[in-house]
Design a protein that fits this description.
The protein has three domains: 60 residues, RNA-binding S4 domain (Structural Genomics Hypothetical 15.5 Kd Protein In mrcA-pckA Intergenic Region, Chain A); 81 residues, 2-Layer Sandwich (Pseudouridine synthase), CATH 3.30.2350; 146 residues, Pseudouridine synthase, CATH 3.30.2350. It is built from eight helices and 14 strands. Strands 5, 6, 7, 8, 9, 10, 11, 12, 13 and 14 form a ten-stranded mixed beta sheet that branches. Strand 11 and strand 12 form a beta hairpin. The longest helix is centred in the middle third of the chain and has 12 residues.
Length: 313
């Protein structure tokens, strides 16, 4: 018996092949295109091409053996939504304070828990599934933005692409950093080693390196450690970790980038996200994420409290 799916408002005008890639994520791309070439996928009872534009209300018929439609909102054995800590919801966005140690994607991830959290709250859609709109490493805590709608995803992605969002992180780094500075480097990613390196401009451009800019403000320091606020002008993978190490102040506990030993690993927290002045009226100008308890405890052990530190708690 074939699977039948009804196109929803979010699906109107979308290419059939792209819609089915969202609706049937477990179906290999090669198998999807083979079914389309064979005329076995129907729209309103007629064989449809990959480029067919779907209309809201259309019935899409797929052979049962292909896959089951959609990704389950909560798979068997998935942990409850204990890691979903909303900071703000609106304008098609869900902004969370991610705990350190939980992955954004994959088994047991925040993405799975978010889909469980949003189950029943969103209108039906074949082509849209809530998902993260930017990266945050598994050991990093703090602000992460998920989409609640296609419109929200498009809006936030455009702000990222245009560089109109301001992201500020708190990090504990090795060494005494006393004066504000700006780190401007060329970064190149080694995907095999899953590590980012600073390289020279000439050599880097030839190898596909990308510019990275980070404004660094020390908030507190001792002879061994500094608490810094890092404001990103770009959003490269491992940007803060790689630049901090290159400039002689690796994150304390970040052994991958040469940091000193710290119980529990490095402390990096996405503390603030600022939207542009022309954001929709309901969107806050700045969203702040409270520090996780282990970060707060470690800072209390190392530093005399600063005004900024108190404001984050």
């Amino acid at each position: 018996m074939a699977i039948e799916m009804i196109a929803c408002p979010d699906d109107n005008g979308r290419r059939l092949d792209r819609l089915l890639r969202k609706a049937l994520p477990e179906l290999p791309l090669s198998a999807l295109h083979r079914l389309l070439r064979q005329g076995r996928i129907l729209v309103d009872g007629k064989p449809a091409a990959a480029s067919c534009r779907v209309t809201e209300g259309s019935t899409i018929t797929v052979p049962e053996a292909a896959s089951s439609p959609g990704v389950p909102l909560q798979s068997p054995g998935v942990a409850p939504t204990s890691a979903v800590h909303p900071l703000w919801e609106g304008a098609g966005l869900l902004i969370l304070n991610k705990p350190a140690g939980i992955p954004v994607h994959g088994p047991g991830s925040l993405e799975i828990q978010v889909r469980s959290y949003l189950a029943g709250q969103l209108p039906p859609s074949l082509s849209f599934k809530p998902g993260p709109l930017h990266r945050l490493d598994q050991p990093t805590s703090g602000i992460i933005v998920f989409s609640r709608s296609i419109e929200g995803a498009r809006y936030f992605s455009a702000l990222l692409r245009e560089g109109r969002l301001t992201k500020r992180y708190l990090a504990l780094v090795d060494g005494n950093l006393e004066a504000p500075t700006v780190w401007e480097d060329m970064l190149i990613r080694d995907t095999r080693r899953e590590k980012t390196f600073v390289t020279s401009s000439t050599r880097g451009r030839a190898a596909g390196a990308k510019e990275a800019g980070t404004r660094v403000i020390p908030l507190a320091s001792t002879s061994r450690y500094s608490l810094i606020m890092a404001e990103l002008a770009t959003g490269r993978t491992h940007q803060i970790r790689a630049q901090a190490a290159f400039h002689g102040h690796p994150l304390a506990g970040d052994r991958k980038y040469g940091g000193s030993f710290q119980p529990g690993g490095f402390l990096l927290h996405a503390a603030e996200l600022a939207f542009p002045p022309d954001a929709p009226p309901e969107v806050p100008c700045v969203i702040k994420a409270p520090l996780p308890a282990p970060f707060s405890t470690r800072l209390q052990e190392v530093f005399i409290a600063t005004d900024y530190f108190l404001a984050c708690n």
